Amino acid sequence: MWSIDLVRRRMVAASRGRRDRRALVLVETDGHGQRVARCCARARKAGVTTGMTLAHARALMPIDGVRLEPFEPERDDAALRSLARWAMRFSPVVAVDPPDGLLLDITGCDRLFGGDRRLVARVGEALDRLGFAHRVAAGPTFGVAWAVARFGGQARAVVADDGATEAMRPLPIASLRVADETVEALDEVGVTRVGEVLALPRSTLPSRFGAELLLRIDQALGSAIETIEPVRPSLPVSVERVFDGPATQAEAIELAAHELLGELCEKLARRESGARRVTLELDRSDLGPLALTVTLSRASRDAGHLWALLRPRLERADHGFGVERVMLQAWPIERLAHEQISRWHEGPRDQEAELGRLLDTLVNRLGQRGVTRASVVQTHVPERACRRVAATGAGTSPGVRTDEVEAPPRPPLLLTPAEKISVTALTPDGPPRRIGWSGGQSEVTASLGPERIAGEWWRRGEPTRDYFAVQDDRGRWLWVYHELETGRWFLHGRWS
Amino acid sequence: MEGSPEAVRRHLREVIRRVEQGGSEVRLADSCVPTGWNAVDSALANQGAGAGIGGLARGAVHEWLGIGEHGTEAPSERERGWILPMSLLMHLAARAIRAAGEGEGGGRAAVWIGSRCWPSPSSFAGVYAELLGRSIFLEPRDRASRLWAIELCLRSGAIGVVVADGARLGMAESRRVQLAAEAGLARGGGGIGLLARPAWECGAISAAATRWMVRREITPGSASSHSPPRPRWSIELSRCRGSASRSGARWVLEGGDETGVVCVPADVVDRPGSAADGRGFARSA
Predict the structure, then answer these.
(1) Which of A116, A154, A155, A123 minimizes the C-alpha distance to A138?
(2) Checking DSSP bridges between strand B250-254 and strand B159-165, what pairing results, if any?
(3) Of B71, B55, B39, B66, nearest to B269 (Cα)?
(4) What pTM was estimated for this model as a whole?
(5) Is residue A391 domain-shared with residue A301, that is, in the same domain?
(6) Residue B10 sits at the chain A interface (C-beta within 8 Å)
(7) What is the CATH number of the domain that holds A382?
(8) Which residues in chain B have their CB less than 8 angstroms from residue A400's CB?
């Protein structure tokens, strides 16, 4: 229901509150076609189940009574993570349990809310207000709470500390969080309830149904420890300094910023992380606040490097009638392990770090558009064969993959736009004999081609070109083409 | 090492130099980037400290002038008529990052500074695919930031080769660039700097380690015999710091063989060399 609820929320938001009364089906596409990944209660009532083909599902429901949406598990996961951060108001230790669960460690928290029952009720009410279908259960172990929430039949349940075994007994095997094969294997021998498993001799279980079953039973009943990986709140790291009255001296401001940077880097080091973006904010007495931002290609907490990037910006900054407050913020931050500072040999890692620093410095002065890499585009049209992408940012590792395509060689110099030239040829579609271009009149002494490159059909009216590589009487190799539709000739590149 | 006494002596000299420098920091092949053109490499072999394998010295700037058109260009045609020896620059850049990447695991980057010296990315297919993956293209807005970028990149330890538009660089600027390259070598970087300059700047003085003049040559033979296109150039070592006598040597090169790299054309290899060619050999032997 989690995915369905999310999609419903998005739909409501998009239609500004108008509710769509149709049944909702989320569709995923695999190798065999489209299938139902999730469906709402109304669809389920009509007989739709997950895993059913879309055609089958459509047949079960009226044509205009169903709305189809794509199933996006990554988006749902991200939403679950943010819900986990939201849930930190109830407990400091919250873990996500994909695809649709949250685990809260409420040890000690229940007192703040007046007991387990009150806490469960509060969580339930809060989720109601958010509009998510839910079930909440509290128990002595994560295993019991998980099982009762999913299979208990009650929207809100609390299992007493000594009631774990009793609570688990009537539940189906799947509530033990074991693999589907184990559930099936037990089902084959007629064991369908947890209580029946508990009645079996314990020593025979691992050999027949795998070690996982025992572990899960122990986890549910509290004889094995289960750890969860809690989500951590990611807050920006920031430091600030407030001046006693507006400071006008550039040196004072600079000094304060430099000191703050040192503090910021120390803070980052303590958290074993580095900044991907650093913002220096100056609160000016008469003007609005001024933010100077430096974006880094890889996380860093090297004060010297950051200062080298920030300082030129700060020097050019307009202080107005004085600066009242200097604030430095690192956000987003990334985990950056501690490293040994000096060593004998520079490994490839150091080189990568050095390249990162170099790119940051370059981007800082030349701008994001002045520092690029080339990414190859799969097309035959030469001028579109590559795209410039920012050298920093996503996928910064050197090595933009280029497929080794068996293509005829292309000239290293491509003219954009192609230069219009006059050509004399012996036959209409034949190679040129004489070329008039910006380099003068040339006689062609050798020519190769033609190589036909058709325009891409999805771009309307793109002409087909016949390319020739020709050498003129002065030894210049030119790449010229002839537009078949218009009969015009162009010089497109040179081998130089 | 081969049996010749000269080769043994050269090898020993290199070993002594390495021992004296204390450690294996500078390896034999690290001191220079072999061009892959045998005659050129052996002519450069004695240059600098490196012996044995010759090539363009690391931590130094090499100027490539041209492509000259028999010196007949009208002044008005100059600016737009400057065609860079792009194939040669790509060939050398690929050699430089390949030599730098050997044995170290991590490859170094190639930086192309100034949009005038950016090769068309589609020409990087095949042997140059790795070069494209490691290439960073910079577009400085003005001459000052172009010079700043060249210096910064040469100084960095992460760069294998810097190819830059070197037009209108004065003596002071070229010295700064050369010093930056040397500083880069001292820091363990040791990229080479390739500055492309127009042919008409052959009179300008500079602090570069070598200066090469590239001229266009006519590819002989009928059209069908050269597919793909095989442009030819002659390169002349017009200046070589530390050995004035070696300058003036000339070689003919041809592009577009099966593997795509630039090489000495087959009909030139076996031919008895020209006077200048012979001089280059004589010095190296």
Answers:
(1) A116
(2) unpaired
(3) B39
(4) 0.64
(5) yes
(6) no
(7) 3.30.1490.100
(8) 132-133
**In sequence order, which residues have a C-beta less than 8 Å from that of residue B199 and are 6 or more positions away?**
B65, B66, B67, B68, B69, B71, B73, B82, B213, B214, B215
Best mutation target among B79, B108, B122 (most A Cβ atoms within 10 Å) is: B122
Chain A residues in contact with B137 by the CB 8 A cut-off are: 371-374, 388
Kindly determine whether residue A402 and residue B132, on different chains, have CB atoms separated by under 8 Å. yes
Asked if A469's CB is within 8 angstroms of B133's CB, the reply is no
* Chain B hits for A389, Cβ within 8 Å: none
B119 three-class SS: coil
Which residues have CB under 8 Å from A164's CB, separation 6+?
A: A139, A140, A141, A144, A220, A221, A222
In terms of CA atoms, which chain B residue is nearest residue A400? B133
Q: Which two tokens stand for residue A413?
A: 């110099």
Which residues, at least 6 apart from A104, have a Cβ–Cβ distance to it below 8 Å? A87, A90, A91, A93, A94, A123
Q: Say how many domains are in chain A.
A: 4
Look at residue A322 and tell me if it is in a domain: yes
CATH code assigned at B129: 3.40.50.300
Q: Which of B129, B216, B255 lies nearest to residue A474, judging by beta carbons?
A: B216
The domain boundary residue, chosen from A362, A387, A405: A405
Structural domain span for residue B144 = 5-284
The parent domain of residue A86 ranges over 76-221
**Which residues in chain A are closer than 8 Å to B216, comparing Cβ atoms?**
474-476
Of A348, A359, A448, the CB nearest to B223: A448
Whether A25 and A128 map to the same domain: the answer is no
From the list B149, B219, B260, which residue is nearest A471 (CB)?
B219
Q: Look at residues A38, A71, A104 and tell me which one is the last residue of a structural domain.
A: A71
**Per-residue pLDDT of chain A in tens (496 residues, 90 and over written 9):** 788 888 888 877 777 767 777 888 888 887 777 888 888 888 888 888 888 888 888 888 887 788 888 888 888 888 888 888 888 888 888 888 878 889 999 888 888 888 888 999 999 998 888 888 889 999 899 999 999 998 888 888 888 888 888 888 899 988 888 888 888 888 888 888 888 888 888 888 888 888 888 899 998 888 888 888 887 776 788 898 999 888 888 899 999 999 999 999 999 988 888 888 899 999 888 888 888 988 888 888 888 889 988 998 898 888 888 898 999 998 888 888 776 554 444 455 567 778 888 888 888 888 888 888 888 777 778 888 778 888 875 443 444 444 444 567 788 888 888 889 999 888 888 889 999 888 788 888 888 878 888 887 777 778 889 999 888 888 888 899 998 888 899 999 888 8
Chain A residues touching B132 at Cβ < 8 A: 374, 376, 400, 402
Per the CB < 8 A criterion, the answer to whether B177 and B151 are in contact is yes
